[in-house]
Specification:
Radius of gyration: 17 Å
CATH topology: Rossmann fold
Number of domains: 1
Domain AB hydrolase-1: 22-137
Number of strands: 7
Keywords: Hydrolase
Helix content: 25-40%
Oligomer: single chain
GO molecular function: hydrolase activity
Structural class: alpha/beta
Shape: globular
Pfam families: Abhydrolase_1 (PF00561)
Strand content: 15-25%
CATH architecture: 3-Layer(aba) Sandwich
Protein name: Alpha/beta hydrolase
Largest sheet: 7 strands, mixed
Strand order of the largest sheet: 1-3-2-4-5-6-7
Order of helices and strands: EEEHEHEHHHHHEHEH
Length: 260
Amino acid sequence: MGWNPFRRAPLLHVADDRGSGPVVVFIHGIASSSITWTNVVPLLEDRFRCISIDLLGFGGSPIPEHADYTLAEHVAAIARTVASLRLREPFVLVGHSMGGLIAPRYAARHPKQVRRLVLVSPPIYITPTALSMDRDRSVQQFYLRAYKWLRENPAFTIKNGGIIGDMLAIPRSMDINERTWVPFVKSLEHTIESQTTISDLAALRVPVEIVYGDLDEFSSPGGMRIAERIRGVTVTRVRGADHLIGKRLARAVARSVDEE
């Protein structure tokens, strides 16, 4: 049972706020933290105010006892945190991995606040039966079965957090552990597996750029093809990059943010 919808959403940890100029807000992925943006912020801080926020349950942000870590709860917490910053102009919103699924919902719910959306390595999944190609359905079913297995086997997942971290392309500094288990498993089920990314993208009226590597371990080809056909969405595929934001992917992300 999640928190009462009339209860105030928690404030999140603003892990980094540096630079000056137009604002860029960064949100990371599952079981990670704002360390995700280590290679990106230095490329932008001379021209932009770069604000990195830790998602609910991760990094330095609170872990509410009754949270279900739904898409709505993640968005509500981001909304309250952004409101506390008292930003005067619409900003660029950048999300990595699960953050790239939360960001479109935030932008759809708060259309006047976001002027551009950059989604980095978003695992855009839809119901396998809705995909036309057999290979696309097989890839989608594999991910969903793997995530379900991880959720249902906590002893294995926590014990082998380092290995799972490598499998899921999660930085070692934020391995799955006892502290982050509940946020991890509930975010996996209630945000990644229950995402609304395609419908959120279709509702947007701001430019959207999806940036991902051709070696991304968690990209769904079927979902990505559908996303890039949506009006206002462009896709940049980075050769030699995987799910994590290494230097090559970071440069592509910085170019997407800088693009007007």
